[in-house]
Amino acid sequence: MTLDRLLRAATARLAAAGVPSPAVDAELLLAHVLGRELADLRRARLLGEPLPGGEHGATGTAYQELVVRRTARVPLQHLTGTAHFAGLDLSVGPGVFVPRPETEVMVELALSALEGIERPTVVDLCTGSGAVALALASRRPDSRVGAVELSVEAHRYAAANVRSTGLAVDLRLGPAQESFGDWVGEVHVVTSNPPYIPPGAVPVDVEVREHDPELALYGGGEDGLDIPREVASRAAELLRSGGVLLMEHADVQGRTLPAALMETGDWASVEDHRDLAGLPRVTRAVRAGRP
Ligand SMILES: C[S@@+](CC[C@H](N)C(=O)[O-])C[C@H]1O[C@@H](n2cnc3c(N)ncnc32)[C@H](O)[C@@H]1O
């Protein structure tokens, strides 16, 4: 059997199961099983290469097993064990939130806020796999980067990612609301992609609803903003005067989160930014002068 025939059959099965990008997922799973780069697999496919060992060999069997699990809507990144984020390959799986491309907007806004500051201090609250903290550490190697995560399982992935990337991140385990007591008033930029989904807004995608941990999703309170409010309050304590908070939120919270921050009196200015799809996504708040 050729790679092309195998991929066509797998794509059809994934499409029938409602997988959103069946052709790419079929290719990425096969590249994973074969241990080849995607571009290399695509070249081999065009050249009419056969599947090593045939359809019923070890590779063919391993591939079919992954395709079946993907038809059950297990996230692609759980099957490959890897998520790509801001140019990094991060280890992910059950128990940790899979980092999303839209969160890269927050990384870019943080990098802009850090421009012109030498050896800045940055903290990522609710770090999950460590994606945002590691992206900032790789793009600003002169910075002191801290990150905190409450879930033991997620923290384990973050620690593995700190080790595998070799990037310098001071990773801690515990509630963001009480974190980095030793850095209070010293931080230039705080980033956070906290849990923020309102209780009634159960995610449509099976991959999210059944595989991202609940602790990563629901923000608490009627508007889903209880935890984001608490995390922003901790950010206000950590930041120096003029320091910047960048917080991701749901597209329906583009007005409510900025309004909630303005109410506190902690912030001199608050504005909201859209993601690449044009949806409200990140609130940027500048710390008011500290007494
Ligand atoms: C939406 S996920 C984001 C993860 C990561 N920042 C990212 O963008 O991929 C939210 C994360 O916050 C963690 N979390 C929830 N409540 C927390 C708290 N009170 N303190 C620290 N982390 C918390 C969850 O376990 C989860 O890993």
TrEMBL record:
Its EC number is 2.1.1.297. S-adenosyl-L-methionine binds at residues 149, 193. Substrate binds at residues 193-196. SUPFAM superfamilies: S-adenosyl-L-methionine-dependent methyltransferases (SSF53335). Coiled coil: none annotated. It catalyses: L-glutaminyl-[peptide chain release factor] + S-adenosyl-L-methionine = N(5)-methyl-L-glutaminyl-[peptide chain release factor] + S-adenosyl-L-homocysteine + H(+). Residues 6-81 form the Release factor glutamine methyltransferase N-terminal domain. Residues 102-197 form the Methyltransferase small domain. GO terms for biological process: methylation. It comes from the Bacteria. Methylates the class 1 translation termination release factors RF1/PrfA and RF2/PrfB on the glutamine residue of the universally conserved GGQ motif. HAMAP family: RF_methyltr_PrmC. Belongs to the protein N5-glutamine methyltransferase family. PrmC subfamily. This is Release factor glutamine methyltransferase. It comes from Ornithinimicrobium cerasi. The lineage of its organism: Bacteria, Bacillati, Actinomycetota, Actinomycetes, Micrococcales. The gene is prmC.
